[in-house]
Amino acid sequence: MPKLTFWFEFASTYSYLSAMRIEELAVKAGVEIAWKPFLLGPIFKAQGWDSSPFNLYPAKGKYMVRDIGRMAEARGLQFRLPEPFPQNGLHAARLALVGLEEGWGPEFVKGVYRAGFADGRDISEPAVLATELEVAGANAENAMARAQAPHIKEKLRANTGEAQAAGIFGAPSFTTSAGELFWGDDRLEQALVWSLR
């Protein structure tokens, strides 16, 4: 089956939109999705940024909030920008890697996005993550312990390095098996079609 890699960052508003619809679209397209958490912080630093571009450019940030609000409403989703923004998604990303190994990853990912961008909760809080782990069917205590394992930490660093090497500069991004790169929720459909080539 053709495969499309979904690169996501838990601090990314537009990744929230993609995470909530990618599975249904992929099933219809006959494409397998590889979920790949990574961190935008090191990528932004390499570009000379110390925060989200939506914070660095206030007009762009104001537009983004309204744009996400419109899109979320059209898709039947709730949206609120959490405070602080961007959220620290490091521990959530490590937990997602554990979940992708154990089979509950996508449900956890969607739960964390809902917690942050629908409910406005702080996704760096262990209690918030524990709740989403349980909802996804995981044992929260075991998952939290596994997320501290050296190989999980190294996997997240490797994912981030791989993203940089692939030319990824933002999230969500999508790459086909042939290495074709697409950036943004509005390119998801095109990425799925391209992955069938």
Give the structure's gist in a few sentences:
The protein is an alpha+beta fold. It is 55% helix and 10% strand.
What is the topology?
Blueprint: E1 3-8, H1 13-19, H2 22-29, E2 32-37, H3 41-46, H4 53-56, H5 58-74, H6 90-102, H7 105-117, H8 126-135, H9 140-146, H10 150-165, E3 173-176, E4 181-183, H11 188-195
Parallel strand pairs: 1-2
Antiparallel strand pairs: 1-3, 3-4
Helix pairs in contact: 1-7, 2-11, 6-7, 6-10, 7-8, 8-9
Order of helices and strands: EHHEHHHHHHHHEEH
Question: Helicity range of the residues?
Answer: 55-70%
Average predicted confidence as pLDDT: 95
Structural class given helices, strands, pairing? alpha+beta
Quaternary assembly? single chain
Q: How would you name the CATH homologous superfamily?
A: Glutaredoxin
Domain tally:
1
C-alpha end-to-end distance: 11 Å
Q: Helix tally?
A: 11
CATH architecture field:
3-Layer(aba) Sandwich
The top-level CATH class is: Alpha Beta
Morphology call: globular
Q: Strands of the biggest beta sheet: in what spatial order?
A: 2-1-3-4
CATH topology: Glutaredoxin
The percentage of residues in β strands lies in 5-15%
Q: Runs with pLDDT <50, length 5+? A: none
Largest sheet: 4 strands, mixed
